[in-house]
Structure formats: C-alpha cells, structure tokens
Design a protein that fits this description.
The chain has twelve helices and six strands. By secondary structure, it is of the alpha/beta class.
Length: about 260
C-alpha cells in the first residue's frame, strides 16, 4: 500500500479570529504540510495513482526525461486528493461546521471540498469562496452564468492567478451553496499581517485572501444580508498556506499598500 504524501493537519480554534467573527472560528492548518500548502493533497494523490498503475511505464519515461505533468487544479485525481481535508474535518469536529471559507485560484481546492462534503454527508454546508479583485475568475463566471477568461491577472496573490476556473469548479459552484466573494490586494495583505500577529504564522496573500473573510467582516456581511445563518455555530477557515512569502516581501507589500504596523 502506497504511503500518502500529505500529513493530517491540526484543526485549531482561534480565539482572536473567533472574537472578530462573533462565532467559533476553527483554522484548518494546511500551512503545516511539509510543502507549505494543501496542494500536496491533490497533486500527491494524482502522482501516486501514476505510481500505482503505471510504475513500469513511469520508470521507463523517467529514464528518458524524468518528468510527469500533473495539472495543479483541473484534474479529477487532484480533486480526489483534496477531499482528504474534509474527511479530516469530519473525523475531528463534533458536528458539521456552519460554513467553510477557502480561497479560489483555478478551483481545485473548491472541487475537492465540495466533493468531500458530499461524501461525508455535509452537502448543505455553505462555502465562502474568496478571490482578490485581480484574480476573480470564479466571481466573474458566477456573475455571467458561464466560464469567463479574465484578460489578465493583476494581484499580489499570484498563486490564485488562473485566468479561468476549471469547468468542474464552476459547475459544482452552481450546484452547491457557494458564496463567491472578492477582497482587494490590500485587504489580503493586511490579513496576512494580522494573522501573523494573532496566530504567529506567516502565510502568503493567497491564504490572506481567505483570512480576509474574517478580518474584513465578509462572513458578518453575508449574515446581515441573510445569505448565511445569523447564529452560525462555527466557521472553518482553510489556512491554505503557501510558500510565496518572506518577511522582506511582506515589508515591501506593506509599503506598497500603505499598511502600517500596529
Ligand atoms: C496557497 C494557495 N492557496 C490557494 C490556492 C488555490 O487553489 P486552486 O487553484 O485549487 O483553487 C493555491 C493555488 O496554487 C495556493 O497555492
């Protein structure tokens, strides 16, 4: 039996974020994967299927060029791998969460989470799907009712920079209760800074985009507009992580967006 390449990540209650949100906020700490993000779940799973079914062929190919292409978000094995995150939530939580917050690039994480929710019987858990202004391919598709290709990507959340989401992500988002929401780059970077102060963890802006749902009261606004329950028991934020960040780069972004240290 092949060993999985990802690790089970902790689910931790956050006191500072719960205070802001007005309900219990759990952090699913994907930034603690060895690779720094949830990506190893889907890509690792996809690679392993290559390994399991075509080891011999792969070894021959490896002799030639040593390369295998795994799509970062538009691959059913990647979605299947990302589903493991929901199974861990199901095993760790006492009941189903009131909502799940995640960020969207090409939508591989979104697909995995929706498929996982269906598999564990949590198909009515709403998802808050976060993008930045400059990467809003899901928001644009949901508004247009069809896939949209953005003319360009203009955001510091570069790993969310898919000009068009996977068709499956759009399709699932129209079937599941998904609230696509947008924040600015400044809000995403500000969330990175506040999270470092609150939780002592440094994540990249792609992850700050999800955290901004709490820091910028996106969840509260959805509650006020009646799109989310007023009395949410809990919210799970998928802290997707990412390695595209250093303290030096964060300082540059803080200057660029006029974010002062508190
Ligand atoms: C840290 C991080 N968060 C979120 C995403 C978005 O994932 P997806 O493309 O599956 O929507 C990525 C994509 O690379 C990422 O690196």
């Amino acid at each position: 039996m092949a060993r999985v390449l990802h690790v089970e990540t902790p689910l931790r209650e956050s006191v500072p974020l719960s205070r802001i949100a007005g309900c219990t906020v759990f952090l699913k700490l994907e930034n603690t994967q060895h690779t720094g993000s949830f990506k190893i779940r889907g890509i690792g799973h996809a690679c392993q299927q290559v390994w399991n079914t075509a080891n011999e062929a792969a070894l021959c190919m490896a002799k030639e060029d040593g390369c295998t292409y795994v799509h970062p978000f538009d691959d059913c094995l990647v979605w299947e791998g990302n589903m493991s995150l929901v199974h861990e939530l199901k095993a760790t939580m006492h009941g189903q969460p009131g909502a799940i917050v995640l960020s969207v690039g090409g939508g591989g994480l979104l697909c995995g989470v929706i498929q996982g929710l269906r598999e564990v019987g949590w198909e009515d858990v709403p998802i808050i799907a976060m993008e930045t202004e400059g990467t809003k391919s899901l928001n644009a598709a949901m508004a247009a009712g069809k896939l949209v290709t953005l003319p360009e990507i203009s955001s510091v959340a570069t790993t969310l920079g898919a000009k068009c989401v996977a068709e499956r992500a759009f399709h699932l988002a129209t079937q599941h209760p998904v609230h696509p929401m947008v924040v600015s780059d400044k809000q995403a970077v500000s969330a990175v800074c506040r999270f470092a102060d609150d939780e002592k963890m440094l994540v990249e802006p792609a992850c700050g985009t999800a955290l901004a749902a709490i820091y910028e009261d996106v969840v509260k606004k959805l509650q006020l507009s009646g799109k989310l329950d007023h009395d949410l028991t809990s919210v799970v934020v998928i802290v997707c992580g990412g390695s595209n960040i250093t303290l030096g780069q964060l300082e540059i972004w803080k200057d660029q967006f006029g974010i002062s240290s508190t």
